Structure formats: structure tokens, C-alpha cells
Amino acid sequence: MDTSNRTAITVEATVNAPVAKVWQYWNEPQHITNWAFASDDWHAPHAENDLRVNGAFKTTMAAKDESMAFDFEGVYTDVEDQKLIAYGMADGRKVSIYFEDNGNHTRITQTFDAEESMPVEVQQSGWQAILNNFKKYVEAN
What we know:
Layout: E1 8-15, H1 19-27, H2 29-32, E2 42-49, E3 56-63, E4 69-80, E5 84-89, E6 94-102, E7 105-113, H3 120-140
Antiparallel strand pairs: 1-7, 2-3, 3-4, 4-5, 5-6, 6-7
Family: Belongs to the AHA1 family.
InterPro entries: ASHA1/2-like_C, START-like_dom_sf
Domain Activator of Hsp90 ATPase homologue 1/2-like C-terminal: 16-139
């Protein structure tokens, strides 16, 4: 699948926590299941993560009413401890996540290739909602 002409979408958040904590909560399955969904009527009942180049991850995202579920998964192409995570998804789209250490704050910048079946604004809104949910979870714990 040709991904060279895909639109890149960026979402960002500043988390009020040191980068070590942000990195841990982003990558450990017991934390991923607490934030990897865009709204309160969804949840993430399962997550697995092998954080290394060529390692795979999979997070199940599901509606709480059991009407819909899907696995969000990919393979890591680059990992720099507490700085960068990059991966490819099964459909060829690429994602990069940068973690900027600002002492007691961490800036997360996530850029991903848009899929062609959904409006860019909808995709940006959904990924931003998940990132906002992550921020909320980290800051509350």
C-alpha cells in the first residue's frame, strides 16, 4: 500500500509529570489499559507491549456496552528511551511520538499518517481525546 501521499496529523499535550513517569505510564500494559480510549463509554480491557525495535504491541479498545471492539496494533521501528517511539501499523501507516523532558513537565508530540476512510478532523479529534485521557490519567496518579 502506497503511504507516500498520506496526510500527517499531529496532536500534542503537556503532561504535568516528569518524563520517567510519563514514559512508564505510556508503555506499561497495566497503565495502558487505564487510558487508551477516547471517551468514557469505551475502555481498553487488554494491552501487551514489547517496547524494542521490531517488538510488537496490541491494545484492545472496546465499547463498554460490548457493541464494538478492535485491536490497535503495530511494530516498533525506533525506540529511544524517554525520547522517541516510532512504529508502523499493519496498513502501512507510520506513527512517531516525541517526549520532551521539561523537568516536572513532559511535552508529548504525536504525529501519525491519516487513514483515507475518515475525515482528517475526526481522526485528529479522536487521537487528541486519547492523548488528553492519558494526560488526565498520569496527572491523577
